[in-house]
Specification:
Blueprint (H helix, E strand, L loop, with lengths): L1 E8 L3 H9 L6 E4 L8 H4 L4 E2 L7 H11 L6 H21 L13 E2 L9 E2 L6 H12 L3 E3 L2 E9 L2 E9 L2 E12 L20 H9 L3 E2 L4 E8 L8 E2 L2 H5 L3 E4 L18 H15 L3 E4 L5 H7 L1 H9 L9 E2 L1 E7 L2 E3 L12 E3 L4 E2 L12 H17 L22 H15 L6 H16 L4 H19 L11
Parallel strand pairs: 1-2, 1-9, 2-6, 9-18, 17-19
Antiparallel strand pairs: 3-5, 4-5, 7-8, 8-9, 10-17, 11-12, 11-16, 13-14, 14-15
Helix pairs in contact: 1-5, 1-11, 3-4, 4-11, 6-14, 9-10, 12-13, 12-14, 13-14
The protein binds succinic acid (SIN).
């Protein structure tokens, strides 16, 4: 039997930071759906938001709460900003190198809805990739690649482990504690900026187990993605570009965002995304990111990943305007946990990072608070688990599993993505949500593969939550 102290599902910042923090005597297994770098952390560009000093913590709290539009849990936000300040200092002590100026002073950039420049970054616009690499270098636990979790082994509200499909074989892995750190729901949407492995399987499994998901209608659409590249993951054009002076213009060069909010490019993310969508619907004009304020040298040095990705796509920067569209980016809702990351109502089960809902982001996440969330709440989960003595009795579960993929599932997956983008996207209507719900219910009645069923269940939950919230709030915009 495969028995561990802790199983961590997911290898983004939350999962790998938890793995790094456990006492070395613990037997820890990290499950990766694909390889370790197929996670959202790897693609995070902008940076990590953190208070500049003790005095700035309160303002970071206020900015987070005001972007969250009334739905944040104040205590959760206080933990994020206070613990986050300490944890980033610990990362620096652990040897992580954020970008610094020539005198060795940390460089902070600006992103929307922050009242100060408080975003640390690394490798210019490769913050997530650098943090992921750092954690992979620190990691001393076993990582099992190509492992899709197909079920949680739960009886009487106690979690005993996970069922996994590994290279075509079904296996059960048992543990005293299971931590879910699988990220959000990107693959449910036609246009998204997420890693291809992010497909909401665990959200779906939670629904089948009666585990509560919360605020699932609160989905963040990043305003500036380049969506014409091949592949499901669309090219993110970091908010930090706007923080450093890039403008959003229509094809006539007009900075139309002023018609929506005086903060223009630096309005909260939901406002910019909704404005772009609305303006395009009304005018039929193409929307661009404009880099007239950048020199070539600055662009290359400050945003090397974006510069070279766009160059490969044929853009001559900074002279060319780049066409943009909003794209799904981040799920604010998720598995309801307490402030120590414990899944409510279940024993030995934790959720951290984007997959969890502590209400730290409310109805609209403040830019660059998510890497910080992964760091802070993974630490709290580890501390909680380390503080316990376990009287753990193994319970063996069958390895019977439903068929995971059936013929025709792929086409339906695509249709689901298109419908979710159109009807449960940036701007939603009662009719659009209702018709998508009916489509989903029809597909759930058919005999489909389990992985598609899990996506359908999560999508249904998003729509049900959206239908329940009749008035617009934050990222949830109803017409
Ligand atoms: C970005 O670089 O714009 C993304 C940062 C974030 O999602 O917080």
């Amino acid at each position: 039997m495969n028995i561990y102290d802790v199983i961590i599902v997911g290898s983004g910042i939350a999962g790998l930071n938890a793995s790094a923090l456990f006492d070395k005597s613990k037997k820890v297994l990290v499950l990766c759906k694909d390889n370790s770098w197929n996670c959202n952390t790897f693609y995070a560009q902008g940076g990590v938001a953190v208070a500049l000093d003790e005095e700035d913590i309160n303002l970071h709290i206020q900015d987070t709460i005001s972007a969250g539009d009334g739905l944040c849990d104040k205590e959760a936000v206080e933990i994020l900003c206070k613990d986050g300040f300490k944890e980033i200092q610990n990362w620096i002590k652990r040897g992580f190198e954020f970008d610094r100026d020539k005198d060795g002073k940390l460089l902070y950039t600006k992103e929307a809805a922050h009242s100060k420049n408080r975003i640390l970054h690394a490798g210019g616009d490769a913050t997530g990739r650098y943090m992921h690499l750092f954690l992979m270098r620190e990691n001393q636990n076993t990582l099992l690649y190509k492992s899709t979790v197909t079920d949680l082994l739960i009886e009487d509200d106690i979690c005993y482990g996970v069922r996994v499909s590994h290279l075509g074989e079904i296996k059960n892995f048992y543990a005293k504690s299971v931590i879910i750190a699988t990220g959000g729901i990107g693959s449910l949407y036609e246009y998204h900026t997420n890693s291809k492995s992010i497909s909401a399987d665990l959200h779906g499994i939670c629904i089948t187990k009666g585990i509560k998901l919360r605020d699932m209608e609160m989905l963040q659409f990043h305003p500036t993605a380049y969506i014409h590249n091949r592949g499901a993951r669309k090219q993110l054009l970091s908010e930090a570009l706007r923080g450093e002076g890039a403008y959003i213009v229509d094809e006539n060069g007009k900075r139309f965002l002023f018609d929506y909010d005086k903060r223009a490019e630096l309005s909260p993310r939901n406002i910019v995304a909704q404005a772009i969508y609305d303006y395009r619907q009304k005018t039929n004009l193409e929307i661009y990111l404009n880099f007239d304020n950048f020199t070539k040298e600055f662009f290359k040095k400050r945003f090397p990943t974006i510069y070279f990705n766009l160059k490969d796509l044929g853009f001559n920067l900074p002279d060319d305007n780049v066409p943009i569209s909003p794209a799904f980016h981040y799920a604010m809702g998720g598995i309801e946990t307490d402030l120590n990351a414990k899944v409510k109502g279940f024993k030995n089960l934790y959720a951290i990072g984007e997959v969890a809902s502590t209400r730290v982001h409310g109805a609209n996440r403040l830019a660059s608070n998510s890497l910080l969330e992964g760091i802070v709440f993974s630490k709290r989960a580890v501390d909680d688990i380390e503080s316990k003595t376990f009287d753990f009795k193994i319970k063996e579960f069958s390895k019977n599993e439903d068929i995971l993929i059936k013929d025709g599932d792929k086409e339906l997956k695509h249709q689901l993505r298109v419908l979710m983008w159109k009807n449960a996207g940036i701007i939603r209507s009662y009719e659009g949500l209702k018709s998508t719900l009916e489509w989903i219910d029809d597909k759930l009645d058919q005999k489909r593969g389990k992985l598609l069923k899990l996506r359908l269940l999560t999508s249904k939950e998003i729509i049900k939550s959206a239908l329940k919230r009749k008035k617009s709030l934050g990222a949830h915009y109803m017409i």
